Amino acid sequence: MLQLFLKKDRDHPVRRGHPWIFSGAIERIDGDEQTVSVADVYDCRKSWLARGLYNPKSQLRVRLLTWKKETIDQSFFSRRLSQALALREQYFANVTNAYRLVNSEGDFLPGLIIDRYVDHFVCQFFSAGMELFKDHIIAALSKVAPTTGIYERSEGRVREEEGLEPSTGILEGEGPPDVVQIEENGNKFLVDIKRGQKTGFFLDQRDSRVFLAALVRERTVLNCFSYTGGFSVYAFAGGAKEVVTFDSSMPALELAERNLELNGFADAPGEIVKGDAFAYLKEAERRFDVIALDPPSLAHKRSDVDPAAGGYKFLNLHALKHLNAGGILITFSCSQHLPADLFQKIVFGAAVDAGRKVLIVKRLGHPLDHPVSLHHPEGEYLKGLVLRAVD
Ligand code: SAH
């Protein structure tokens, strides 16, 4: 096993349970430095600290798995998956049959995401180390949960940074059907696991959808960046008078239409509109009582934060202009690199420029299937503000 020694005074984060070791913290490596492998991490005095997965191609050189001397094998992953499953089973039995089973660092499995859609599971391997243990993880998952099929959607920037090619397809069992029907808080949704965005559904907005549903009775609603209509279905279920569902993705909107139909809202007042939300918010004439504004991440890396701030300000400024007096804006940022206090400042700037007086009535964030490790606050990517424009 690779042995890795940290520079003097660089052991503190590891001792406090932070799971990341960057290349700059490493003094010396004993073993095959060129190969992805399990690594034991020591401080500069050669005292053992933790065990993790090493990738020579990534600046994030080690992602720590454990602070105990336990073997990293199938049984290790079974234990972690069972813990993750127990949390969800305890709270979700009557809430949803779709949830995030493994939330990377938040479930002490950095680099691994597993989402569950009824009995279909979707995995994303975002680190070369996790990729190494793919077979063990799949075997462990099949034992821990009743799976009809396990599908892979390992794509995107993070894979590239790890020196990995995209990888998608069936990992075990049956491939998913074109759409899987899930049920969340009594609302039904069709999820396209193979071609949808991310793993098919934005499970992380479940609690926010519930919150919105409670605010919209007899109100007009704009669901801006709607994806497959999550907020729209909840809005109608909550008694909304009219809902406009807006997104730039045709496949997403086609599913949004089917989702409205599936829940009995095919003829409910409103429309489904395809377009660019930036242009729509700038140009649209009409106002709404409630607006949900849930853009994709505008900052994918730290250096994107400045331009992203401009994008968030633009969206929030124009959304606020479209609110009726007393109206509610539920606004989100899912950019991990944009901290909550900065997001709030951006929205404040937007309110000032929009000439509105605005209250924060609630903050929204991760549901319990997206836990954040207290030792890894960077995992808290989703920030929501519920705002009331008082005049
Ligand atoms: N609120 C949704 C998730 C939104 S994800 C839910 O609860 O399911 C972000 C969405 O923004 C995606 O559906 C994507 O297609 C859409 N999108 C990205 N850029 C856009 C743009 N410029 N205009 C409109 N929609 C856009």
| Helix proportion | 25-40%
Structural class: alpha/beta
Proportion of residues in extended strands:
25-35%
Bound compounds, please? S-adenosyl-L-homocysteine
Low-confidence stretches: none
The side-by-side strand order for the widest beta sheet comes to 16-15-14-17-18-20-19
Average pLDDT confidence is 97
What's the total count of β strands?
20
Radius of gyration: 22 Å
Q: What is the overall number of helices?
A: 11
Net shape: globular
Largest sheet: 7 strands, mixed
Distance between the termini: 64 Å
Give the SSE layout:
Elements: E1 2-6, H1 12-15, E2 20-22, E3 26-30, E4 37-42, E5 48-54, E6 60-66, H2 74-92, E7 98-103, E8 112-117, E9 120-125, H3 128-132, H4 134-144, E10 149-154, H5 157-161, E11 167-173, E12 180-184, E13 187-191, H6 206-213, E14 220-224, H7 230-237, E15 242-247, H8 250-262, E16 270-274, H9 277-283, E17 288-293, H10 305-321, E18 323-333, H11 340-354, E19 358-364, E20 383-389
Parallel strand pairs: 1-4, 9-10, 14-15, 14-17, 15-16, 17-18
Antiparallel strand pairs: 1-3, 2-6, 4-5, 5-6, 7-8, 8-9, 10-11, 12-13, 18-20, 19-20
Helix pairs in contact: 2-4, 6-7, 9-10, 10-11
The structure holds S-adenosyl-L-homocysteine (SAH).
Key structural traits:
alpha/beta, globular, 11 helices, 391 residues, seven-stranded mixed β-sheet, binds S-adenosyl-L-homocysteine
